Amino acid sequence: MSYMRRISSLDKIYHFKTEMEINAYHYTAGPIGTRWLEALKNGELKVAKCNKCGTRFLPPKLYCPKCFSEVSELESISGEGYIDTYSVIYYNDSGERMSEPVIIALIRFEGIYGGIIHRVKTDPKKIRIGMRVKPVFRRDKKGSIDDIEYFQPIE
Amino acid sequence: MKTNIHVKNRVAIIGAGLTLFRRRLLETPQEMAWIASKKALEQAGMDFKDIDCVISGSAPDAFDGVHMKGEYYSEGAGGFGKLHFRVFVGGGTGVFVPIAGWWMVASGLCKKALIVAEEKMSSAADPHPQAVFRHIWDPLIEKMLGPNLIWIFALEMHRYMHKCGVSKEDIALVSVKNKANALDHPCAQAAAKISVEDVLKSEVLVYPVNRLDISPVSDGAAALVMVSEDVARRYTDNPIWVAGIGFNLDSYSWTNRELAYPLYLKKAADMAYKMAGIENPMKQIDVAEPYDPFDYKELHHMEGLGLAPRCKAAELTKEGVTQRDGDLPINPSGGLLGVGNPIAAAGLMKVAEIFWQLRGEAGRRQVKKPVYTGLAQAWGDLMQVGTVIILRR
Lengths: 155, 393
Ligand SMILES: [Zn+2]
Hints:
A: 10 strands, B: alpha/beta, Peroxisomal Thiolase, Chain A, domain 1, 14 helices, 35% helix, globular
């Protein structure tokens, strides 16, 4: 079929090039998220708490993920959690081998609904599911999830 | 009244809720969806756990900046562990969501549906959210001109003015009316007491469009509870019935349409009128919320809906017919021009307004005459889809 020719080079056909992205997005954190980020800035990992059904959960939101009541409270936790599952990243998005592998893990906390996904820093040979971890905060904190540089195993 | 359709379950609306409409809300899209849903459920006397399906709608992902945002924000509406889908027909979405809710409940696939629309346009920070619309144009022929949405409106508005002999002053009356109506709306973002002169003296952005001819960019969410007849009877003595739905798509090519008349809407309205057994909309529709992102669009859409003879909507407006105390109140909420334009949520706000008007619950916005049948309408996709819903008490 003559109208389904394979194109080997864009130089040989008429085409129009453009970009289709918004350059910058501003994501607001919401009223509970704002206070949660402020706690991170102070070096503290907190959880949201529903006063109706008692659920303590992460990530924090204005509504309870279990009973959908309004949530207005944050509560401190020790910060010690455990690895629910993990993955080791050896190649980056461009397909290049990274100088050092990065471990990404789903981290849960005893008695807390949900959890967070974050980096874990340890030897990929030693990491295992169920391993206990705690957050390591950066010195220069901005009020972002990245204020936690990584989680590290608890010896 | 003759109708052309048999449904398994008659569908009623029993609750509606809105967030504030603002240029920027602190709440996340999920939290906005939750607030609107909670309010609608409260009015219905229900809780999230009572709902068996969540039907949502939102405009392009590029506003919120979350791809597949329906699956994202719908968590706040309790949209997990249940039947959920998102519909999307651009600016027409707000009225298309309850249309989709109607077919779910009417068919018997679910009985208690939460209908939610959300838009967080403020996330798109640089360039202005309007830039998202740059990509709705034909990529080969039109896009390289660097068009924006106001261009489309300007070309259409000018054609309508020319064909119908309508002046800028006539059109400005719509903006004056809607912004004043919105003074009574607790969620309104752009309510104001302005004059025709104010509109004419505001900056000419793209001739013939002045700044005050246009609705603002907004964050906001809206929700409805739609249920089957047996459920409605258990929860309320005052259900509002969905009497008709309609939707239709015109050609993508602006060049292939007569811009002075919205054929996409005429066809969508005919579908809804047939279902509702309406033969003379000017007599049988008591109150309406046509889509008014720009002031001329209210007139244009009144004509497409058959709520005014062709080219006569401006005259009715001048005579005061479309005021809240007029014979055919149009956009008593304040519309997009007054309440704000968080795209999908703005369309659903219109359906909520008709629901409250028919229940007699619109407070200071309540129209003067008794109302039994009302209509809400939106317009969108690539500016060629019409969506219509007719409600009856
Ligand atoms: Zn709870």
